[in-house]
Amino acid sequence: MIEFFTTYAEYWADWAPRLRAAAVVTATLSVAGFLLAALLGALLTTALRMGDAWLKSVAHAYVQFIRAVPLLALLLAIYFVLPEAGFVLSGFWAGVLGLGLQGSAYIAEILRGGLGSVHKGQREAGLSVGMTPWQIFRHITAPQAMRVMLPPLLNGYVSLLKDSSLCALIATDELMLTARAISSESFLPMHIFLLVGIFYFAIAFPLSMLSRWLEQRLMRGRCVMGST
Alpha carbon 180 to chain centroid distance? Predict the structure, then answer.
């Protein structure tokens, strides 16, 4: 057991810079993918809630289709099929696009559910006192909907962060691809993948706990508001 851990001290000077650089790529990839997913999800939610019948049907079909397609299949299609149509993307940007498209369907459902949790009578009350639709959304709908949406959005980012490891299969220089390269050079796969697993855990676990804490705290706030 002691020998197992002393191996890290022996190779750390070589491994650390490469893993740090890969961790930056993973963080950038996941954040960029989540921002794209949030943008597309907001547009989908707008179409589902406010669009005409045709637009709603298109948005609904997109959400159902994307949720049914495995992320790996989507990434491979973007990376290998799009160049046939003249659109060539690097592994990083193909990963961002794939994560964003996949995540947008789930975020759209989160946003739609959060906004739908606010009773429509509150909107009618706002209109009756002369508020504009934007004022109603900003001061009434959005603050209440965020109580419902924030915890699952955090969970959505955690899931997207873990899914970003699949981008190693399209030559994105993130943590998993770097770990595979180091393990093939050093013939120490258990050491490397254990280290990478600890990295993912160190990020995902605190965010999951934060999501749970927020959910409990915000639900407590809703109960207090409902009882008054």
Answer: 24
